[in-house]
Design goal:
mainly alpha; two-stranded antiparallel sheet
């Protein structure tokens, strides 16, 4: 199986799991719809230059950031905000499912999965 397909399957699994957990924590689907594309605002880093844009965009589009945020919330006892990290994870899963990857500094369209 090709790595790109595996990453798309992984994205689908993350998206589905995030939605299931979101439902379990009784998250508002209105907030889910409103905030689902919020991580894409990090592409505004490209207004500075390609290097800053890729760095800022990638920080918001790796699983590391929302998992770290989830862990901080967990250990600080702020579990009522888990829903935010689940929306974030769902967004990243959706991007991977569609074949959007992390950005290279060469151009916005150059990703680790394909040239968009």
């Amino acid at each position: 199986m090709k790595p790109r397909l595996l990453l798309q399957i992984e994205g689908a699994v993350v998206l589905l799991a995030a939605c299931i957990f979101y439902h379990q924590v009784h998250g508002s689907w209105l907030w889910f719809a409103v905030l689902f594309l919020a991580p894409d605002f990090f592409m505004l880093g490209y207004l500075a230059n390609k290097k800053v844009g890729a760095l800022v965009y990638n920080l918001a589009h790796t699983y590391t950031a929302p998992v770290l945020a989830f862990s901080i919330l967990w250990f600080s006892g702020q579990t009522s905000y888990f829903w935010l990290t689940l929306i974030w994870l769902a967004h990243i899963g959706w991007d991977r499912l569609l074949g959007y990857g992390l950005k290279y500094e060469t151009a916005f369209k150059d990703t680790h999965l394909q040239r968009v």
